[in-house]
């Protein structure tokens, strides 16, 4: 989407990492005795999840008030040992719980096993959302949305992640098995599979419609893909009726619903300070500290630890943060490599407008956002058609935190 | 590495994205400065020491004005970003080599302090500061801008009188013998860095290809001049010179590449940019051919700066839906 002047520069500036640069097998990192989960807390909740004396089984759901707000799945059995309150990036109230995993207690939660044996749409939605890749069945259970097609994303939406690309390249059969299972669970017959273009020759000819995605960022963005589908079907974008699943989610579903009901590890890319990428498989809930330890990476004052990719991730203040079901990358940046944002006025250079994939007038948008006129940003400058790609900040000449302004505005309007 | 020692060190927490393409305001300004050299150097070669004096004084005094302002207003010192140096350079490019020193210093004061800083600094100026300063100078000390009188000591091979004055006074026949090629090479009286059209063209094309200026503005500005001049020329070829003449004389090319494209005072979206440029070009020729001023560019640019906020209101259809 990044085009140069006169469109002379045909190659995009920012490319997705390709799985061909990475080893064929991920290294497996087993947590040393502790798993950590972050649960979203309701306004007045003070509960400790689970009833029976703090013991949890494999696949047990962890939540505070009700699972409706979201839940995590315990990847291993153990005992809840600690909890503390946290505030998320946009002010979400979170509770961090630690589970000390004890080896002799490794048994499965009955409800979870039952859902695996006989997955229905309702059970899948109630028990599978904490699996790696976070299969989200909520749109399918919502009668207003009338979902008609499954879209499986074999691509990662941030530049450094390779989880889905890895699974498409090396485990295509379980991806396809997962798609078959998804069709069975949802009763839908139409499915689309999006894979990186360089992996297409590796695919077996299969029933689902396969589309390729170019390596330029943000081609793999969900909204860009949604638009492609609608253009191909010649329907308005508001009418897409797609349910999105990542290839990793499809794999995880086919794994838990197979004979041995094993919850697979989360696949992620670890990027060290020199930019070297490594592929990791680790249970959801593993503290980032253990991954850093494995690679011998030491953090110093002022370094940056990012959970997620360079464009859309979250910088965290502690190495105790866990790998979540959607963490496709973990990145460490040396303090000398950090480009600071600056608190200056927009110089109206227009770089953001040229780069924005949805043609938002970012230069005008930032002017109203800076003074807190969020309503006007939404009504006049299409705040909500922003697809959260972060490119405007990436190219901003004045180095304004444009993307952060946009996200704050969206969050504020969502709460209002 | 246990968690206790880990937690002691403070990590850098900020927001996405965590990468940046490395562009910066300073980088852009220095590139524009470099791009101005092909036009300035021929001027310096021709006018010699006097031109060197004007250029260096202009750049230096612009930087000092900004520094003084930052110190008095207790603002962060940002002279390193090259914006004042650039303003000084552009102003000097339009001045005759014989400009007295005090006029240069006044000019940079108008550009840096009046044109930019009191509006809020970089990015907040509604008018191009350099053009504003130049206009104040021409209005206040117009006699010193008579390029013919100012440059009497120099010998030009092609045109020895400011060509725009000639065409204004005597019609297009008076300038017909001037070869466009000679004019493009800058063989005529004029500002230090605004006569060598070839140099300006080289610099401008470099800036457009590297994306430091918005090519839509430059191209449409030139198109505006060509269109309007052609219309006038067709109506009365004897009175009005042709488009080529208008392009290579006065501040037309420096205006198209270096002045109209100033970031803060020009639009950013495609259609507004095209309209802005076209309007600027057309106004330039209108002022030259029907107004009392010989060189229309500064006034034309101030006028399009004025309509810029209106142009940027033109709605751009967005590509994706608003979420449900
Ligand atoms: S983050 Fe939003 S506004 Fe910025 S470039 Fe991407 S889509 Fe455009
Ligand atoms: S890239 Fe930054 S400085 Fe340039 S117009 Fe956009 S917000 Fe303003």
TrEMBL record, chain A:
The keyword Metal-binding applies. Coiled coil: none annotated. The keyword Metal-binding applies. GO terms for cellular component: membrane. SUPFAM superfamilies: alpha-helical ferredoxin. Residues 335-367 form the 4Fe-4S ferredoxin-type domain. Keywords: Iron, Iron-sulfur, Metal-binding. GO terms for molecular function: 4 iron, 4 sulfur cluster binding; electron transfer activity; metal ion binding. This is Electron transport complex protein RnfC. It comes from Desulfofustis glycolicus DSM 9705. The lineage of its organism: Bacteria, Pseudomonadati, Thermodesulfobacteriota, Desulfobulbia, Desulfobulbales.
From TrEMBL, chain B:
The chain crosses the membrane at residues 30-48, 54-73, 85-114, 126-144, 156-176, 188-208, 215-235, 241-261, 268-287, 293-311. Pfam families: NQR2_RnfD_RnfE. The keyword Ribosomal protein does not apply. One of its GO terms (cellular component) is plasma membrane. It comes from the Bacteria. One of its GO terms (biological process) is transmembrane transport. Keywords: Flavoprotein, FMN, Membrane, Phosphoprotein, Translocase, Transmembrane, Transmembrane helix, Transport. Signal peptide: none annotated. InterPro entries: NqrB/RnfD. PANTHER family: ELECTRON TRANSPORT COMPLEX PROTEIN RNFD, ION-TRANSLOCATING OXIDOREDUCTASE COMPLEX SUBUNIT D. This is Electron transport complex protein RnfD. The lineage of its organism: Bacteria, Pseudomonadati, Thermodesulfobacteriota, Desulfobulbia, Desulfobulbales.
């Amino acid at each position: 989407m990044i085009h140069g002047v006169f469109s002379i520069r045909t190659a995009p500036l920012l490319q997705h990492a390709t799985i061909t640069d990475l080893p064929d097998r991920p290294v497996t990192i087993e947590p040393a005795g502790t798993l950590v989960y972050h649960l979203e807390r309701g306004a007045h909740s003070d509960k400790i999840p689970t009833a029976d004396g703090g013991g949890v089984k494999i696949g047990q759901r962890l939540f505070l008030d009700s699972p409706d707000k979201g839940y995590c799945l315990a990847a291993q059995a153990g005992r809840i040992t600690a909890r503390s309150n946290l505030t998320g990036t946009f002010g979400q109230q979170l509770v961090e719980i630690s589970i000390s995993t004890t080896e002799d207690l490794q048994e499965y939660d009955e409800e979870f096993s039952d859902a695996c044996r006989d997955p229905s749409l309702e059970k899948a939605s109630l028990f599978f959302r904490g699996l790696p890749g976070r299969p989200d069945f909520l749109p399918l259970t919502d009668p207003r949305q009338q979902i008609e097609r499954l879209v499986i994303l074999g691509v990662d939406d941030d530049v450094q992640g390779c989880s889905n690309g890895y699974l498409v390249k090396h485990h295509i059969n379980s991806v396809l098995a997962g798609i078959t299972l998804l069709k069975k669970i949802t009763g839908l017959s139409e499915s689309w599979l999006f894979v990186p273009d360089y992996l297409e020759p590796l695919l077996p000819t299969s029933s689902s419609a396969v589309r390729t995605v170019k390596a330029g960022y943000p081609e793999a963005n969900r909204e860009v893909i949604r638009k492609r589908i609608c253009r191909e079907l010649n329907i308005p974008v508001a009418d897409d009726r797609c349910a999105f699943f990542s290839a990793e989610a499809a794999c995880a579903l086919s794994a838990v619903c197979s004979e041995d009901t094993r919850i697979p590890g989360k696949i992620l890319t670890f990027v060290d300070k020199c930019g070297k990428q490594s592929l990791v498989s680790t249970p959801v809930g593993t503290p980032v500290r253990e991954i850093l330890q494995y690679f011998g990476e030491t953090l110093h004052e002022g370094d940056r630890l990012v959970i997620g990719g360079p464009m859309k991730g979250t910088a965290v203040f502690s190495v105790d943060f866990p790998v979540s079901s959607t963490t496709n990358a973990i990145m460490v940046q040396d303090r000398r490599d950090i480009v600071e944002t600056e608190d200056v006025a927009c110089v109206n250079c227009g770089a953001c407008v040229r780069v924005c994939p949805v043609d938002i007038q970012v230069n005008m948008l930032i002017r109203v956002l800076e003074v807190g006129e969020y309503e006007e940003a939404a009504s006049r400058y299409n705040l909500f058609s922003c697809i959260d790609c972060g490119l405007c900040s990436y190219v901003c000449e004045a180095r304004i935190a444009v993307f952060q302004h946009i996200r704050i505005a969206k969050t504020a309007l969502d709460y209002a | 590495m246990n968690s206790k020692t880990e937690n002691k060190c403070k990590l850098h927490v900020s927001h996405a994205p965590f990468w940046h393409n490395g562009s910066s305001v300073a980088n852009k300004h220095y590139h524009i400065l470099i791009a101005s050299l092909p036009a300035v150097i021929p001027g310096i070669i021709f006018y010699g020491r006097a031109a060197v004096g004007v250029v260096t004084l202009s750049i230096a005094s612009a930087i000092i004005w900004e520094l003084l302002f930052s110190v008095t207003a207790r603002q962060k010192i940002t002279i390193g970003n090259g914006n004042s140096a650039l303003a000084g350079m552009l102003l000097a490019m339009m001045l005759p080599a014989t400009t007295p020193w005090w006029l240069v210093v006044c000019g940079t004061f108008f550009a840096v302090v009046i044109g930019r800083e009191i509006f809020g600094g970089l990015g907040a100026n509604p008018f191009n500061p350099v053009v504003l300063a130049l206009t104040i100078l021409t209005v206040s000390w117009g006699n010193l801008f008579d390029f013919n009188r100012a440059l009497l000591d120099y010998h030009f091979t092609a045109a020895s009188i400011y060509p725009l004055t000639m065409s204004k006074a005597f019609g297009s026949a008076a300038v017909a013998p001037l070869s466009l090629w000679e004019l493009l090479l800058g063989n005529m009286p004029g500002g230090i860095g605004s006569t060598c059209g070839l140099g300006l063209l080289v610099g401008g094309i470099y800036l457009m290809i590297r994306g430091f200026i918005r090519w839509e503005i430059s191209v449409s500005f030139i198109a505006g001049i060509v269109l309007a001049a052609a219309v006038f020329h067709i109506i009365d070829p004897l009175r009005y010179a042709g488009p080529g003449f208008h392009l290579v004389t006065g501040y037309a090319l420096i205006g198209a590449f270096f002045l109209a494209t100033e970031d803060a005072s020009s639009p950013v979206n495609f259609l507004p940019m095209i309209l802005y440029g076209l309007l600027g070009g057309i106004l330039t020729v209108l002022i030259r051919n029907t107004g009392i001023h010989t060189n229309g560019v500064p006034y034309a640019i101030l006028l399009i700066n004025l309509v810029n906020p209106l142009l940027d209101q033109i709605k751009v259809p967005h590509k994706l839906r608003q979420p449900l």
